[in-house]
Specification:
InterPro entries: MetI-like (IPR000515), MetI-like_sf (IPR035906), UgpAE/MalFG_permease (IPR050809)
Distance between the termini: 71 Å
Structural class: mainly alpha
CATH superfamily: MetI-like
Protein name: Sugar ABC transporter permease
Number of domains: 1
CATH topology: MetI-like fold
Membrane topology: Multi-pass membrane protein
Number of strands: 2
Largest sheet: 2 strands, antiparallel
Strand order of the largest sheet: 1-2
Shape: flat
Number of helices: 15
Family: Belongs to the binding-protein-dependent transport system permease family.
Order of helices and strands: HHHEEHHHHHHHHHHHH
Main location: membrane
Amino acid sequence: MTRPTPDSAVDSPATRPGPAAVTRKRSSARAAGLRTPSWVGWLFVAPALGVYAVFVLRPIALTVQYSMYRWDGIGPSTWTGLGNYVRVFTDPDLFASILNAVKLIVFFSVIPVVLGLAIASTIRRIATSRLALVARTVLFLPQVIPLVAAGIAWSWLMSSTGLVNQLLTYAGLGGVARAWLGDFSTALPAVGVIGAWVLLGLCTILLLSGMSKIDPALYEAARMDGAGPLREFVSITVPSLRQEIGVCVTVTVIAALASFDIVYVSTQGGPGNATMVPGLEIYYLAFSERQVGMASALAVVLMVLVLLVALPIQWLTKDKSS
C-alpha cells in the first residue's frame, strides 16, 4: 500500500476548499479589481460644478467686488470700502425698500400658507367628488399664467373704474372705492393681494400632496377617540406636514423678499416709493441711475437677508427623526 504524496494530499477532498470559500475569494478578487479611486467620482460632477462656478459663484464674487466701489458701469471706479453698505442702512429710501419687502411676507407667505392649509384640508375631505378636481385646477391656474400678465390683469381690476370698485359700488360701499394701486395707504397691500393670489395655488397643491401621504388610520383612530375635524387638523394634519409647510414658507418668503415682476408691472414702485422693493430698487440704481456699486451692495444685502430668513426656516421645519 503506497502512501499519498504531498500533491495528492493537497488535492484530496478533505483539504480542498469548499464552494463557499471559493466564492468568497472570487468575490473579494473581483471587488478589488473593480474598486475605483475616489477621484473618479469627482469627474462625473465636474461639469456641473464648473457650470455652477461660472454662472453662480463667479457673479456673486463680482457683485461683492463691485459693491466696494463707486462705479457707473463704464468709466473708472473709486474705492469706497463699506461706504455703499452704510448708505443702504442709512438712506431712508433704500432702507424703506427692505422694510416693504419684509411687510410683503405677510401677504406672500402667511396668507397663502394659512389659507392653503384650510383649503387643502377641505379638498382632502371631498377628494372623491368632481368639485375637488375643479378646485385644484382653478387654484393652480395662477401658476400657469405669467406674472406679467397677472400684474396687468390685476392693474385693470384695481383701477378706479375696475371691477373691484364696481362691485363695491353695487354693494353700497362706493365710499370705500379708490384707485387701490395708486393710493399711498393701499398700494402695498394691493400688491400683496396679487402675490397672495399667485402663491395660494402653489401652497395648496404642495400641502395637498403632503396630506395624501398621511396614514388614514390616524384619522380613524382620532374619530374613535371622539376628536372633531378641528382637533384632527391641529393634532394630525399640521404636525404631519412639517416638511411641506417648511417648503411653502421658504419659497413664499423668498418670493416676497426678491419680488420684482408683479411690483414692476403693477406700480413700478409707486406711488412715490410706497411699493418700492429691493429688487426694483436694484434695477433702477443699476440701469437708470448708473450706480452699479450701490446696486451691488443692495443686492448683497438682499442675498444675506434671504439666507438669514430661509436657513432658520429650513432648520426648524426639517424632519427631526431623519
